[in-house]
Model the fold of this input.
Amino acid sequence: MTTNDVWPIRKRQLQAYMEEQGIDVAIITSPTHVYYFTGFHCDPHERFLALAIDVRNGAETLFVPLLDRLAAQHQADVSRIVAVSDTDNPYDTLRANTVQPSSIGLEKNFVSLAAAERLTAIFPDARLHDLEPAILSLRMKKTEEEIAKVSASIALIEQVMAHAVKHAAIGMTELDLTAELEYQMKRLGADKPAFESIVLTGARTALPHGHPGPTPIRPGDLVLIDIGVKAQGYCSDITRTFIMGEGTREQERIYETVLAANEAAIRAVRTGAPISVLDDTARQIIASRGYGEYFPHRVGHGFGMDIHEAPSIHGENGMLMEPGLLFTIEPGVYVPQIGGVRIEDDIYIASDGSARVLTSFPKRLTRIG
Done:
């Protein structure tokens, strides 16, 4: 399947769902979803962006800010583009270009109350339906083409992680190292970090989602680096933990525990088994070594165009693993006053049912500095 085939196929899948549910018009306003269905991405800021798909007549209209019209004409796979200027009332423009619907599909978690009220004002007889679950279900199963983009994003971030190993030094602060790594992301071609980079050292590594600060790296510190980038519209996500210098036997024991949990959970990936098995497998190993109370989060999450997507990899998720799923495996142990270790890999279940570990950065305990 070529890139040119992707957008029409996705729109046809959405249209089939709309016809099944009796939804006349989809009004998609999330920039991520506009990109997913058309290949065009922009950040409209406060301006109006919407893809309207009408199953009654097959019309596809992309409403874009006037300043993005030229880019949309070059990128968007859509039959019609309507530019909206800063002085236009976008809802008047939407009404003028849309046959009155009896039902409208929206992304419930993205559309604000103000936007919903304005839509019901221009289409007072239309019932509102939530399209988001259907769209997210489509997005959850990744194609090989999408995985190629994810893999490129991973290759980039692994170069950044290698740079971290070479350049982390005693006396460098968490913020110093974060700035250096984010510079490398851009230099290597990333669009932006996929999320707020996490670089922590010493006892602060026991904060699972701590924010980098002015704390300097000291001899014997654990150094936890959780980073990712967005490139070609797709994210990467990797965590590795290092020791600055020799460290202690307790740090090594924590590391060995987390590594064992990470590798066992990856081995447990198999089609037909419930997702909960992955969390249970990692958690049992960590608990058996006395660190159960120090593993406070799920073992992983789906990702793709967004850094957190379905499926959620936790112990209560009974969904069965199947081809197309992309997710992280990232167990961690966080002991106050000592520090924390997290090891994160990106996993894809291929069409033949095999589990492909997309990340390849070494996981053996590495001493840096």
User: Anything to note?
Assistant: DSSP finds ten helices and 20 strands in the chain. The chain has a mean pLDDT of 96.
